[in-house]
Design goal:
Elements (H helix, E strand, L loop, with lengths): L3 H14 L5 E6 L10 H8 L4 E7 L2 E6 L4 E5 L5 E5 L9 E7 L4 E5 L6 E5 L2 H8 L12 H8 L6 H6 L9 H11 L16 H18 L27 E5 L2 E5 L7
Helix pairs in contact: 1-7, 6-7
The chain binds a DNA duplex through helix 6.
Amino acid sequence: MPELPDVEIFRQYLQSTALHRTIEKVRVEAPEMLGDVSASRLQERLAGNALGAVRRHGKYLFAAADSAGWLVLHFGMTGYLKAYRDPESAPGHERLVLDLADGYHLAYACPRKLGRIDWCRTPEEFRKQEGLGPDPFGEGFGRAAFDELLAGRRGSIKGLLMNQQAVAGIGNIYSDEILFQTGIHPRTRAADLRERGGGLFDGMMAVLETAVACRVGERGWPEGWLLPRREPGAACPRCGGRIERIRVVGRNAYVCSRHQSG
DNA sequence: TTCCATGTTCCGCA
DNA sequence: TTGCGGAACATGGA
């Protein structure tokens, strides 16, 4: 489920499994997933080096290869990481595998190949190049900055939340959860929400923080969350209404129109 | 077999 | 200019 909270978990996972171990071999199993970097260049940059830091911006993960630059991973809809020692434990659909000197392997698996493997000089440069908006957990992003984002927007709030150029990291699932928790209908015009105070900003931060905490603790979703009930006709865990599936900005949005209003 | 899916990008159109 | 709908991408699961 690679939206911001999921990628944050991958970041922590990579940090605890693969840092400071020399990369002996780099296996590019799906060269068609490479962005601007060639397989040979990627191998040249990574092999013999070790990953020394891991960062995240929105849905992108960055791993520093000594001073040579940063490996960039995007997970599409189905990507994930897995570290293993026994080759029999390898996940299916490996697209990039780093064979580490301690006998472990770090695999980037991505069944649907909708992700991306890339390289950048610095995460800041990559962010600028991609035109990514601020990360909700990044510096300088607060209620004022968010309020400014809402101003003058003609589109829906769901569209804005999912717009990576506006805010980086939120996708279909978490935009639904944020709007569900804050009682806002996904088709509400973003600009109209400026008068509704900081409820949306606070709700957004709370949902993202809670989601990370739940995944870290491998706990289930909190009571009252929409996430495990994304199906038409399900009982609304907040108000007893019915969950409906509607189409918003080209995606299926799950909404309880009894407590979510425009 | 058919439909649907957590993402991004491109096109046409308002 | 902004933003929407739709299609495309590649693949697996219900």
